[in-house]
Amino acid sequence: MKRSQAMVDRRIKAAEDLGVPAFLAGATEHAFDLTVCEYADFRGWKLTYHTHDSRKSEAGFPDRVFLHEGWGRIIFLELKDMIRLLTPDQVRWMTGLVRARQECAVVRPCDWEEIERFLSSPSERLTSPAYKCAWPNVRELDLLQRRKRNARKPHPPNAV
Q1: pLDDT reading at 148 higher than 60
Q2: Most buried residue among 2, 24, 53, 94 by CB atoms closer than 10 A?
Q3: 83, 82, 97: which is closest to 138 by C-alpha?
């Protein structure tokens, strides 16, 4: 029992060092998901979709899809804890959504202020000085993916 408490304490300390809000420090991905859903509901995002058994679904599809009927907006969120990375299938989905000009983001507990802005009304979002449009992390992942693909291509022999 002492060991697991020590692990929780280390997670909370690491989360605080990364700027995670106290109410999310040490939260599991499931607890983080519930918190985001509660906040989305509070902001008027009444329609949400979540695949409950991903083993029978398309690999990599984002964790949450929110639809706000009043604002006519749909957003896709991939929720991650502070440790886990995106899988190649998740990168493919998020990249495809960005290319299709859909609002999407990969979010972690340390992104709470950005999550609040992302789920706010269009007028609040646009007047916020710290607003980031569709977090660049998906675009950065796409660039990394392209660089890896290009690195695998054989280089033509040097012409002498």
Answers
A1: no
A2: 94
A3: 97
